[in-house]
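Practice problem: predict the structure.
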Amino acid sequence: MRGPDQWDLVGHCERAFGLRLAPEDVARIDRFLDMLELWNRRLRLTGERDRSTLLRKHVVDGLACVPLIPSGARVLDVGTGAGFPGAVVACVRPDVATTLLDARQRPVSFLGEVIRAVPLPRTRAVAMRAEDAAGDPAMARQQDVVTSRAIRFDRFVRLAQPLLASGGRMVSMQTPTTDRSTANAAARNVGLELLDLRDYRLPDGEPRRLVILG
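Answer:
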């Protein structure tokens, strides 16, 4: 990584997630963070503005879901905000078609610039509510993977289910308070099943959990 933070992102991701990042993957993440820093000077896109914190807390969390994404998948990130996890996924998985969905125009404008500048040619940013996306033939029932990091789990499941293609999966980044019983109940409510819970930790030791439904 460029800049003062020489922490080993590549080593951490291989140890924690079994994810091998190529130099070009890291370079795209760098360019994404460069743009986020620039935009954060004018607009508050993220609560944290320190590059090291963004890297260790937000980027690493976004990368946790990458090993679950099949080759060539269609991925939709609901409530993407400044691009976590969707833009991070796009930086390291140029083989997938990624849609970054947010109801607010400000982050979508930022992500449009990221897509052009990094570049991320198989990625698009869309300003739309997830409820409306469920009625859009280009998105409804078309997604192999639907992700979210910033939406309460029970709400995410309801929003994501109409977007999921047959055989697709939902992947939600949560805290360990989303337990097996909670996940099973939410899955049953939309006719899905809990496939897995995967626990991991951020570099500062914060516990996190991937909840996977399909």
